[in-house]
Amino acid sequence: MIDYHLHLWPHGQRDIDPTVEYLAQYLEKAQANGVVEIAVTEHLFRFSQTDKVLGDFFKRYPDTPMRTLMQDYWKDHARADLDRYVEVCLAAKAAGLPIVMGLEVDYYEGSMDKVTQLLADYPFDVLLGSIHWVGDWPFDHTTDPFVQGYWAELGVENAWEGYTRALEELAATSVVDVLAHPDLIKVTGMFPNTPNEFYDRIAEAARDCKMVAEVSSAGWRKPVGEAYPSPYLLSKFASNGVEITTASDAHSLGDVSFRFNDVASMVKGAGYDSVTAFSARQKRQISINVN
């Protein structure tokens, strides 16, 4: 197994200086759960270099309290040094630790060329693609009553449509390698009348754009109480020949490789016997094992 979605800093907390020793702690915890390789994938928006390129992204939306919330959220988080992050990841790899260097990249509509230019000079192994907001609405801020109140204003069907369309567009850019938590829109347990129609589109986008799909245990820690993707969507990935990674989306040491025996059983039950790992953005296969 692999844990291909790990963050160094919790949401809402200031970044700290990364060290090889800290990454080694992540690896030790993962290996205790049967993981043979991890990917460090901090959010792209957490870096000051990203702020210089994309810091005005949300100004395209109307001046509303939601836009202000997102601009403030961005300002609070975009402080880390991307060069330092890369330096430490490369040092860990040079020390022989089975760590690959990645990022989690959100969809910046109309600005993905800027993302490509920003990352071109860095030797990343894997890039995860995510949809964390629909327009300027950060739907996965599950503890914010103001944000969650927008479900009633937008409507569940429209929210799922906006999310699915954004994911399709992100996949089509080919900027990223993996679709992270591909049905994240379900995070609060809000489902449309016919979710399978959206799941079918997500699976087709992954297949047509040759994306790898992430199977993540993080949903078991969220209000929805279900892994990403749903059993139906995972079955559609399998029937469409979509390769997978496995992940915990940990933002602290305690959640590294969370419920990975359950993840292994889930993917094997869907017919997978290997997961896709990456090196220099190139795929390779690792057999699934159950600890």
Can you characterise this structure?
- GO terms for molecular function: histidinol-phosphatase activity.
- This is Histidinol-phosphatase.
- With 291 residues, this protein is α/β, with parallel strands linked by helices.
- The protein has one domain: TIM Barrel, CATH 3.20.20.
- The chain has eleven helices and nine strands.
- It has a seven-stranded parallel sheet.
- The mean pLDDT is 96.
Helices and strands in order, then pairings?
Blueprint: E1 2-6, H1 20-31, E2 37-43, H2 48-54, H3 65-77, H4 82-94, E3 99-106, H5 112-119, E4 126-130, H6 145-148, H7 150-154, H8 156-173, E5 178-179, H9 195-208, E6 212-216, H10 231-239, E7 244-247, H11 260-269, E8 274-279, E9 282-287
Parallel strand pairs: 1-2, 2-3, 3-4, 4-5, 5-6, 6-7
Antiparallel strand pairs: 8-9
Quick recap:
This protein has 291 residues and is of the alpha/beta class. 39% of the residues lie in helices and 16% in strands.
Main sheet? 7 strands, parallel
Distance between the termini: 9 Å
CATH structural class: Alpha Beta
Regions with pLDDT < 50 over 5+ consecutive residues? none
Structural class: alpha/beta
Domain count, please report it. 1
- Secondary-structure element order, as H and E? EHEHHHEHEHHHEHEHEHEE
Number of contiguous helices: 11
Strand content range = 15-25%
- Which fold does the CATH topology refer to? TIM Barrel
CATH homologous superfamily label: Metal-dependent hydrolases
Average pLDDT number = 96
Shape, per Cα inertia axes:
globular
- Strand order of the biggest β-sheet: 1-2-3-4-5-6-7
Number of strands: 9
Level-2 CATH architecture: Alpha-Beta Barrel
Helix content: 25-40%
Q: How big is the Rg?
A: 18 Å
Catalytic activity: L-histidinol phosphate + H2O = L-histidinol + phosphate
Family: Belongs to the PHP hydrolase family. HisK subfamily.
GO molecular function, one term: histidinol-phosphatase activity
Pfam families: PHP (PF02811)
